[in-house]
Every structure is written in structure tokens, then in C-alpha cells.
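Hi there,

I know you've been waiting on this one. I reran it after we fixed the sequence typo, so this is the corrected version. Both the input and the resulting structure follow.
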Amino acid sequence: MAVPISTRSGDRKSRRVRASTRRRLRRERLILFTILTVLLACGVTAGIMKSPKKVSASESINLPPAQPTAVTAEAPTAISLPTPLPSATSVPIEAPEEPVIEDAPALLPTQVQPAVKPEDAPIPYYAQSGDSIGVLAVRFGVELSEITSALPLPEEGFIPEGQLLLIPDRLKETSDTLKLFPDSEVVNSPSAVGFDVDSFIAEAGGYLASYSQDVYSIGTISGTEIIKRIAMEFSVHPRLLLALLEYESGWVYGNPVTKQATNYPLGFVLEGHLGLYRQLVYGAGLLGSGYYGWREGTTVALQFPDGEKLRIAANLNCGTVGLMSYFAQKENRDEWSNTLYGEHGFLATYEAMFGNPWLTAQSFEPLFTPDLLQPELILPFEPGVTWSYTGGPHAAWGAAEVRAALDFAPPSEDVGCLPNREWVVASAAGLVVRSENGVVVLDLDGDGIEQTGWNLVYLHISTTGRARLGSWLNAGDRVGHPSCEGGRSTGTHLHFARKYNGEWVPAEGPLSFDLEGWKAKAGINIYQGWLIRDEEIIRSNLCGTATSHVSRTQ
């Protein structure tokens, strides 16, 4: 029997060292702010505003090898782990170069103290892919007006990656600032294209390769099909799902050694979550909640099972926060720290299976560019018919709490899940790359790959009249009839969402849903919200009242 490569032992970090490091960094930041202020005042910005240098594979700092130790053909008993990950104080490979500043000399009695208080001294921050000014203000706990830059800052849309911003350092104790995992290896992004899930699982030869499960409304499907289905529906990278499964229970290369590991392979011992499918649904939801909560600015802190809270360091990326949030749901802080930063933690398992994720990500990131725009979209129903806007921004898929979807209901004299003769139509031209179980996915770039470019996801489409896989639809062509198929629903409607490069795009934000000029705005709670066009306002309402009515005029 193969021995799983997972292990949960690790080392603890010294909080006294962290505190000392933070004090030193605050002194350096104050000095750096003074230098930057002088330079900006003198108009010397060219050297400061250069984009951070990308680190090549040969220049990488303290990186493990790109590939795991080879596995022999004769049913190995273990997989060798690569060189340990950088410590929490190491510089991640994507980090920009910053000036080296020596300790400031002591002030003479006749010198004047700087006017800026150390606690208010701004820190330099280089914008990351997908950053927007409003979300950065939330992450750093500052006002919008307090974020400055020598270059213009867009009120809407993305900030160019690498642009230097100065932001007040208001946060006290935070998580470690080390970036752990790239965005493109969390979402089902272009980096997943070409990864053969079937072959990988078969060659690994563990318990997963022979596993099957009866899934409600789907039937009996194999463990391999479950991995692929969860990856596609929730848009989570299949490599990440496999690594989590191996780390927690040894399913990929070996066999679970306890009944709990067999029944709850991700370790979520919860009622109604027995078996691989429900475990992965729950786990994918947690990953998405952390990832998109950071993207949207709705999540800024972690809470561990024992109630302890930890503010998330503002410089981190969505992929890192997704992992941090996932493990914080099941482990208290010490164990959580070992899992993420320990020599034998989760990242060691991932690298043993798939190599260093940062090296892979260099070919596929950034996922968003600052000039990215939503393509022109029409309302997803035929002209001359009045539908109701029944659901403002809410979860794109299942338990993933990314507010990326909108709901529309057709006219009907009755309520409930009843057949309806109205048609859902294509909001833009594209290729049907998925048509099954109540779902139609329209690929707008026409390359036939759901992980790349813009994709429109139509959920609750009736089997009768549904657009066929591989068909090309122009804007306004019929996709199918609205129904309750494909998920939980209390009434016939359309659930409508967008993805770009595999990432769900929030309905409100830098790339707000725009349907013929109707822009989505979220309410305080999910399903609440408005469609706004010039002076017109449509309010979402589950009951489809007159204030929620909307129609196409052409």
C-alpha cells in the first residue's frame, strides 16, 4: 500500500521576532516616506514609478525545484518532498524590488522631529492584478482620499499592475505578509488547460482512482468525474482540489487509514457532508469565499474555530487569502500556522505533486489587465416581453459566496417551478461549450475553452429546447426556456453570471454587470440590489412586483 505524502507536523513561529520585525519595518517605512515625499515634490518620479522587476526562474530567491522528485514505476511507498518553501520572512518571487535603506542616524538636539507620526507614515504598495481603489481602502482600513500616487488612480476599473501607491499604515497586528499561492492556481484558469485529470489520477493509483459515488440528481459517477465536475462548476483549479485531498486523507496516492478519512476526505465532519462529492462542494465554497471576499473587500479578517481573530495583511493576493481562509475554518491558529508555513505543511504536499505554483503562474498571470472591459451585452430575453428582476448580486454557484449572479423571472400567472414558454437568449455572440443538467455556458472568444476569456453562464435552462453543445449563437439567439432544472429553486427563473479567465466576475465592482446600459448595484444583503441606467432605477424583488419589471425595447 502506498503511503500518503501528506503530513501535519510543523514548527511554530516566534511572535517576538515578528514584533521586532514590525518595529524595524515601521522605522524604515517612515524614512522611505520622507525620501519619496522629497522626490515627488521635486518632480523626480521616473525612477520611482518603474514597474517592479519580474523575477525569472533562474533569479528566484530560495525557490524549491520546479518539479517534484521523480516517482519510480514500481508502486512507490512514498513520494520525496522538494526543498522546503521559503520561510515566512523570505521575499516571495513576485515581490517588487524596494530600496535598501540603512538605519537613520540619531537626531541631534538642534534637529526638528518630522511632522508625520510614525503610526500615520504611509507605506509603499505596488498594485496587483485585479486591485481597485475602493477595495484597497477597505483592506488597509483608510479613506479613499488617503491613497495617493504620482499617476492617476481610476475611480472605476482596475489599477495598473505595478503602479506605486502610498497608503497610511493603520493596521496593527496582522497575518504574515508572505504570499503563499498565486491566483491562477486557485481558480480554474488558463493554467488548467491541458492538465489531464483522468491520467493523473489513474497513474497515481490511490483510493481515488477506484472510487465512485451515487450523487443525487446526477447518478453514480467516479471520483475522477467528481473532481472534474467540482472544478468546472465552482471554477476551482483541479490541481488544488487534488492536493487538498491528498494532504488531508491520502486519497490520491494511497488509501485512507481511518474511517473518518474514508467518509470525510477533506476533514469536514459535518452532518450531510458524507462522501467525496459533498466534501468537495463544501471545500470549494470555502476557497471561493476567502478568494472572492478578498477580491470584493467583504473579508478582511480570519476567525478561527476557537473564536480568535486575525487581521489579514493588506498586501496579500486573493489566492493566498483563499488558502488562509480555507484552513482557518477548520484549525486554530497554531495548527493553521503549521499547515501554511511549516516545513511539512500543505504547500510541501502541493509542490511534491505539481511543482512550484509560482513558476507555473508566471506563464498565465495576470488574469486581469487594467484595460479589460466587459463586452457589450443585451438583456438575456426577447424584446417586447417584460421580465422581473428577482435577484440582485448573489452567489455565482452553490456555496461559493462570490456575488456574481443576477436572477430574472419570466412573466407568469402562477408561482413555483412550472414550465414556461418564454425564451432566454444569448446576451452576446459565442460558442456553446457546456449544455447539460440545466446549464448552458457561452464562450465569447469562441476558442471552445471555458477557462479562457469571457464566458456567460446560464443556469436553470430547461432540457426541452436547450441550445446544443458546439452550436454558435449570435446575440439574441435562443438559449432555452427558463425552469428550475440544475439546482435549488423555488420558482422558474434564469440565474445569470460571468467568468473571465476562469474567475467569477462580481456583479458590482470594477467590471460591473452592464446589460444595455443597466448596471448592477448590490444591496447590503445577497439578492438585494438595483439595476440603474441614467435616471431609471429597477429594484430587485423575489415576488416580481412592478418596481422590478424590465424589458428589452429592441
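Quick highlight: Residues 6-25, 30-116 have pLDDT under 50 and may be disordered.

Best,
R. S.
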